[in-house]
Amino acid sequence: MEKSNDDRPRPLKERRSYYDSENRPVPRAPRREAGRAAASGETPGGYRRPETRSEGNDSRPEAIRGNEGRSYDKEKPRYSNRPAPDRSIDMLFGLRPIMEALSAGRTLEKIFLLRGTKNSLTQEINDLARQQGIPVSSVPIEKLDNLTRKNHQGAVAFVSPIDYMPLDSILAGLYEEGKTPFLLILDRVTDVRNFGAIARNAECMGVHAIVVPAHGAAQINGDAVKTSAGALNIVPVCREPNLKNTLIFLRESGVQVVACTEKADASLETGTVDLTGPVAVLMGSEEDGISPEYLRLADHRLRIPMTGQIGSLNVSVASGIMLFEVLRQRLVKA
Fold first, then answer.
1. Which of 23, 128, 211, 245 could bridge across to 185 with cysteines, CB 3.0–4.6 Å?
2. CA 319, 224, 194 angle in degrees (round to 5)?
């Protein structure tokens, strides 16, 4: 037996009981009922706890005190000040939606079709894509399944965030406006972030248009636009089906093609090549550089001087150096 504070003997099993205002033991309620009572603010004996906060001594922030008793609408967004997420469609799947997008003239980045599938709808997609200069690739089912888990019906397409422009129209417009064409041609630059950085360089240095091949170029998606800091929304991009024909067209239009390659004998800092006239700078991939057939079509070959032990530069860095030299010569001449 133990004694309580009032010196009256209490059984040991009653030590954990509740007591009323007159210090009389109140039996503990079952666990479930105790939970309900706690939620309502009552103790198992029907005794309600006194309020610990009043209007005068409540130290909680006003934003918290003001929310008491408020019923929240579950349909209402919790953070109304946040911008709505971008729900723009950047991928299409299914033969019919892709066909409708092509018929409506939407700019598609590329189309993947299931290898071995041949029917009238896939033939129409191939024909319209060829007319619009959109690359189409035949891929295995694993490739399509990796792109989307939805029912793709053997066809997936990426929607381009930009609209491609025809090179001949841009060149003609530049001559009509009395401007000196300044173009950048990229041969097999496939890294998305490199491409975005190059586009940013081009916009800063005053390039009028970027030319890329229809096949073997970086996909222009949200990452590319973000890396370019929005430059891809400013500088026109021309997608050409055959770069060889494009280089021939530029040379016949009075634009000299200058290739940047470490295999060149002439160095950029010598200033032996006049870059103040109509010029198209040709840059190649980091792995293989510029294709030999394109190098043969270049009017000039220049290399960037380097004194370090590493003999190559990132293509985005190299393009920035080449484009700056063009801008520097033009500013000096002006």
1. 211
2. 30
Query: What are the distances in angstroms from CA 34 to CA 14, 26, 41?
Result: 17, 13, 10
Which tokens sit at 73?
């609408």
DSSP state of 233: G
pLDDT at position 66 is 47
Can you give the pLDDT at residue 9?
56
Which pLDDT score, from 0 to 100, does residue 117 have? 84
User: Which token pair is 275?
Assistant: 């870059």
In DSSP notation, 96-122 reads HHHHHHHHTT--EEEEEEETT--SHHH
Spatial CB neighbours of 58, under 8 Å, sequence gap ≥ 6: 65
**Dist CA 334 CA 332 (whole Å):** 5
The series of mean pLDDT values per 10 residues for the chain, 334 residues long, is: 54 51 60 50 48 50 47 40 43 89 88 89 90 89 86 89 93 96 96 95 97 91 90 94 95 96 88 93 91 95 91 92 96 88
pLDDT at 85: 34
Q: Cβ distance 203 to 168 under 8 Å?
A: no
Backbone dihedral region for residue 134 (phi beyond 0: left; psi -120 to 50: alpha; all else: beta): beta
What sign does the CA torsion over 33, 38, 40, 43 have? positive
Contact indicator for 46, 21 with CB cutoff of 8 Å:
no
Tell me the pairing of strands 209-213 and 237-240.
parallel
Q: Which amino acid is at 305?
A: P
The pTM assigned to this predicted structure is: 0.69
Q: DSSP letters of 3-31? A: E-TTS-EE-GGGTT-EE-TTS-EEPPPPH
